[in-house]
Specification:
It is found in: Cell membrane. It comes from Nitrosococcus halophilus (strain Nc4). This is Copper-translocating P-type ATPase. Belongs to the cation transport ATPase (P-type) (TC 3.A.3) family. Type IB subfamily. The radius of gyration is 21 Å and the shape is elongated. Strand 5 (about 105-110) and strand 6 form a beta hairpin. Strands 1-13-12-11-2-9-10 form a 7-stranded mixed sheet, sandwiched between helices. The chain folds into 2 domains: about 5-45 and about 170-290, 3-Layer(aba) Sandwich (Rossmann fold), CATH 3.40.50; about 50-165, Calcium-transporting ATPase, cytoplasmic domain N (3-Layer(aba) Sandwich), CATH 3.40.1110.10. Helix content is about 40%, strand content about 25%. It has helices spanning about 5-15, 25-30, 40-45, 60-70, 80-90, 120-130, 135-145, 175-180, 195-205, 220-225, 245-250, 260-265, 275-290; strands at about 20, 35-40, 50-55, 100-105, 105-110, 115-120, 150-155, 160-165, 185-190, 210, 235, 250-255, 270. The longest helix has 17 residues, at about 275-290. By secondary structure, it is α/β, with parallel strands linked by helices. The protein is built from 13 helices and 13 strands. The structure holds adenosine-5'-diphosphate (ADP) and magnesium ion. Magnesium ion (MG) binds near residues 38, 40, 41 and 238.
Length: about 290
């Protein structure tokens, strides 16, 4: 049987856009030590816009952007959308590409004629064992310092361009971190994005600890890492690649319209994309305990 107080709390919660799929999750939420947030789409809006770009000698910006947009053509990733929109705004016609493939947590690839083309971030460069030429490196450093995500265009093993994309931190995020701190909770951020971006966002929000350049399959390992330190952990995420981490956490919280996979993996679902609802639901779980005593 479900304790009455929990049942009532659950229906109150539902009216505020908080759905409790697993009542044990609400009870576990009282005992937490740390809350881990996925960065993109959770602490930030997730919408990416191209704010700057640089090309190697022999390339012009429009052809580099058009090629990147073509290769990103079949990707649903917000980074892909940002690059496609930038090309659309300039009304560029895109070259034909084929054999598109998404490289999870790294980028995308396709072929244009005889050329192999890749678009992606630092983990892609690592996999391809590519060094960034100094010209693009200084562009990347500048963008990184501003907290922008840097994405590279590679053709036939040569880096030809870099794009700086900026995502926007949600208005509420800073307050969320402060409130969780005042509740005695440690706040951790988890992201597939670069070290530089993670560092900038964590500093801006006053986040205690972050893990960056985490491949999708390794997000749940980071949850386990904290649990192995004896901590009870909540994980807040929205994406398909957050699902294993949501399951692994003591309390999994899916946020926003979320993907079905994320929603099915979470004990608690926050219908709106407002991270302040994380604070609300944790306070609600603590209030429930007081009523029961
Ligand atoms: P997150 O959910 O933290 O954004 P992802 O695993 O979706 O993490 O992406 C991690 C990184 O992989 C991105 O920051 C980017 O560097 C690279 N990446 C993933 N998909 C794409 C894509 N379609 N185009 C370019 N880069 C990508
Ligand atoms: Mg995400």
């Amino acid at each position: 049987a479900v304790p009455l107080v929990v049942a009532i709390t659950t229906s109150v919660a539902a009216s505020k856009g908080v759905l409790v799929r697993d009542r044990l999750a609400l009870e576990a939420a009282r005992e937490l030590d740390a809350v881990i947030f996925d960065k993109t789409g959770t602490l930030t809006t997730g919408k990416q816009g191209v704010v700057d770009m640089a090309v190697m000698e022999g390339w012009d910006k429009d052809s580099a952007l058009a090629l990147a947009a073509a290769v990103e053509g079949d990707s649903e990733h917000m980074i892909a959308r940002g690059i496609q929109e930038a090309a659309q705004k300039k009304e560029l016609s895109l070259p034909k590409v084929r054999e598109f493939e998404a490289l999870k947590g790294r980028g995308v690839r396709a072929r244009r004629g005889d050329h192999r083309v890749f678009v992606g971030g630092p983990r892609l460069l690592e996999q391809l064992e590519l060094e960034v030429p100094s010209m693009l490196q200084s562009f990347a450093n500048g963008a990184g310092e501003k907290g922008q995500t840097v994405i590279y265009l590679i053709e036939d093993e040569a880096l030809v361009a870099a794009f700086a994309l900026s995502d926007v931190i949600r208005e509420e995020s800073k307050e969320v971190v402060e409130q969780l701190h005042s509740m005695g909770l440690e706040v951790v951020m988890l992201t597939g994005d670069s070290q530089e971006v993670a560092k900038a966002v964590a500093a801006e929000l006053g986040i205690d600890h972050y893990f960056a350049e985490v491949l999708p399959d390794h997000k749940n390992d980071k949850v386990s890492e904290l649990q192995s330190q004896g901590k009870k952990v909540a994980m807040v995420g929205d994406g398909v690649n957050d699902a294993p981490a949501l399951i692994r956490a003591d309390v999994g919280i899916a946020i926003g319209s979320g993907t079905d996979v994320a929603v099915e993996s979470a004990g608690i679902i926050l219908v709106k994309s407002n991270p302040m609802d994380v604070v609300r639901v944790l306070k609600l779980s603590r209030a429930t305990r007081r009523k029961m005593i």
